[in-house]
Amino acid sequence: MSDTPNTRFGSTGPDLLGPQTTGGGARPAILSLAIKEKAALYAAYMPYLKNGGIFVPTNRPYKLGDEVYLILTLMDDPTKYPVAGRVVWISPSGGTARTPGIGVHFPGDETGVAARRRIEEILGAAVRSGRQTHTI
């Protein structure tokens, strides 16, 4: 299976740096996620986290607590939302019916607040829907 997610997500970039070790420790992985459809955004959004979060399809291995730097593009919005978050959910590849990937918890800073606010503007009342998502 490749690292290319289901096409309803639009596109995701590769983990450009991956968790690499340098003299100062591990650098956060850099991920890019473009979500083109409202249904895909609903399935990926994690509103139950304190600051909100998003599911990012990937086959790369991560550990809970890993730092990741996410560049998020939503729908037709030209704005790119840069978010430095942490891995809080892992759906491993192979052997499950779920899409492999990670859940990234948004930080409580202005970048996380901006991403969460924009996602909830797009989703509106659907945020409270009981439909299945990639994580719950």
**SSE sequence, one letter per element:** EEEEHEEEEH
Structure summary, number of beta strands? 8
Q: Number of DSSP helices? A: 2
- Largest sheet geometry: 6 strands, mixed
Query: Any idea what the radius of gyration is?
Result: 14 Å
Question: Any low-confidence stretches, pLDDT <50, length ≥5?
Answer: 1-24
Give the helices and strands, then pairings.
Layout lengths: L10 E2 L7 E3 L2 E3 L1 E7 L2 H7 L8 E5 L9 E8 L5 E12 L9 E5 L4 H14 L13
Parallel strand pairs: 4-6
Antiparallel strand pairs: 1-4, 2-3, 5-8, 6-7, 7-8
List keywords for this structure.
globular; disordered N terminus
Task: Give the structure's gist in a few sentences.
The chain contains 2 helices and 8 strands.
Architecture overview:
The structure is a single chain. With 136 residues, the protein is an alpha+beta fold. Helix content is 15%, strand content 33%. The protein has 2 helices and 8 strands. The protein has helices at 38-44, 110-123; strands at residues 11-12, 20-22, 25-27, 29-35, 53-57, 67-74, 80-91, 101-105. The strands form 2 sheets. Strands 1-4-6-7-8-5 form a 6-stranded mixed β-sheet.
